[in-house]
Amino acid sequence: MARPASWEARLARERAAIEKVAQRLLARYRTKFPENDRVPVPIDDIVQFVGLRVTFDDLVTMGFVEGVLAGTYAPDRDLFVDESLDPVSHPTQEGRYRFTLAHELGHWFLHRRGEQLNLFRVGRRVRIRDHYPRTARIEWHADYFAACLTMPRADVQLEWRNLMGHDSALLCDRTCSYLRSRVTFPPIRFTTRSDWHVATVMSRVFQVSVRAMKYRLDELDLLPDQDGVRAPSFLGY
Ligand SMILES: [Zn+2]
Q1: Which DSSP letter does residue 41 get?
Q2: Distance (Å) from CA 97 to ligand 1 centroid
């Protein structure tokens, strides 16, 4: 069933507002450190730039709810990350780690003055609580902020152009042979799903998970729709 237009319009407005906050942060960072004007976006450095301190720990032991991978205690500017995401001891978690940091930055910029008061100290322990019914929406905001920060629109479009040689969306039936002839990243395992091929290649450029990359490419109208085609999409909107 089609959603009412007003719902979609509101979603689009929310997304645009969140993306603007992420773009502003990245622009501030890149103005100060123009030498870091490259992808992958140096999320660790941006966290430092913002003035947050990352600490790895076993969050369950610290009192966080099971399954929570990170949390920020705003008054002390402490950003706690579960040790299972430490990219030094768990290099395969690098993409998740980066996205998680960016997600916490999303909370920092979007929610710390308002509703995200869910972190508070109990003695020396930190507990996370959900006091409000809008948690899911807030988490969505932070995820979207993370996508915009780790995969900035302009950089994705540039890398897409570099990879594909054009600005248009992927056309399914051309993709496999096209990529095989162009991609030299080692080692890419091609599957039968062409959209995943592209997402895999691009995810390595941006150091995010393939799933996150695919979602972002899809959102930017660069992947085929369910029929394997999409009307040519011209970038720069
Ligand atoms: Zn969150």
Answers
A1: P
A2: 13
The span from the CA of 82 to the CA of 138, in Å, is 20
Residue 125 phi/psi, 5-degree rounding, is -100, 155
From CA 68, how far away is CA 204, in angstroms rounded? 25
Query: For residue 165, what pLDDT band results from cuts at 50, 70 and 90?
Result: confident
Q: From the CA of 139, how far away is ligand 1's center (Å)?
A: 5
Q: Does domain 5-150 have CATH number 3.30.70.3270?
A: no
Torsion sign over Cα 195, 14, 24, 95? negative
- How much is the pTM? 0.79
Residue 114 alpha carbon to ligand 1 centre in Å: 14
User: How many CB atoms sit inside 10 A of residue 79's CB?
Assistant: 22
For 130, the token pair is: 């959900």
Q: Which two tokens stand for residue 165?
A: 């040689």
Going from N- to C-terminal start, the domains of the chain cover 5-150, 153-219
* Residues in contact with 235: Cβ distance below 8 Å, sequence separation at least 6, in sequence order: 157, 160, 161, 167
pLDDT classification of 203: cutoffs 50, 70, 90: very high
C-alpha 203 to ligand 1 mean position (Å): 22
Q: In whole angstroms, how far apart are CA 155 and each of 52, 65, 170, 196, 218?
A: 25, 35, 17, 19, 15
Task: Provide φ and ψ at 223, rounded to 5°.
Answer: -110, 160
191 CA from centroid of ligand 1 (Å): 33
Kindly give the distance from the C-alpha atom of residue 132 to the centroid of ligand 1, in angstroms, as a whole number: 13
